[in-house]
Amino acid sequence: PILRLLEAQLQDQRREHEKEMEALKNLVDAMQEELEKQQQAFLQTLQLSPEAQVEFGLQQEITRLTNENLDLKEMLEKLEKNEKKLKKQLKIYMKKVQDFEASQTMLPTERRQHDRNMQVAVQRKEKDFQGMLEYYKEDEPLLIRNLIT
Question: Where does the record place a coiled coil (predicted)?
Answer without folding.
Answer: 3-103
